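Sample entry was shown:

___
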Amino acid sequence: MVVAGINMKAFVAALGLASAVVRAAPVEGQVGAEAHQSVNLSYFSGINIGTQDPWGNCKSTATWQADFNRIKQIYPNFNTIKLFTTATCDALMLAAPAAIAENIKIWAGVWAVDTANFEREKAALEMAIRTYGAGWLRGVNVGSESLYRKEIDPYVLANQVYDVKGMVHIALGAPEVPIGVADTWTAWEEGATEPVVDAVDVILMNGFPYWQGARIENALEKLTDALAVTRSKSKGKPIIVGETGWPTAGANFGESVPSVENLQSYWRQAACYLQGQQIPWFWFSAYDEPFKAEGVERNFGLATFDKNLKINLQC
């Protein structure tokens, strides 16, 4: 885009670079390594969870703690919870003390796109870290599939990443917390995401063989192909599977069939593969969400809305 003779993409990119230099302050000669500097990227496994209870009400700290406790009972290997928002339902401020009490980490999602919402989400992240420290925080992603939905220019998103990195790493003194972006493998495949790849510490890749219309027998192949494509565009940045899962009810999608049997099969294919390969991952999702519209989206839980496990989670 050119406005009044100014190339806006170049202008925003320059802002992002300036932001990175001022906020991240890399040592001369280490600019390429700055994204990997001081972040903890050891293996972990976790699960995505929403901010509302089964009836659509915002969760209290007590509700968060009950959710976290049940998740640990269901699958003790889950040591991280991924949230999609920091500010909606005051999620992070209410979930952080529950995570501390249950000795579980949070990966916090900051919504990007419009400036007002981004600033609100960033402020909620700052408040939670200032209140509770950063020991409970596994990482942060800025944006969730906003590139896939074409909601934001990659250069603008990259600058938002630099903004959050500056706040968390420098202003709040937590350089060990990795900052990334979560998006679909198809979005990472596009060359337009390069400024975002340059900005992040880590890449979160969302991949759902169900939404590719895959037969359950071919599901793992689809996931590993998605990982390979993302890795080819990652410039060596670490990759985390941000979302993957299989619904148990709703309409078929191509040759993909929602069922408990297929969830069991996909778990044993995907979760056990990721665990064996020591690729960090988040399952989608913890519990069914009956307040959502009819269809598959309300039926992705490993457990029912009343927290009864649907399948065997052994590998």
User: Anything to note?
Assistant: The first helix runs from residue 8 to 24.
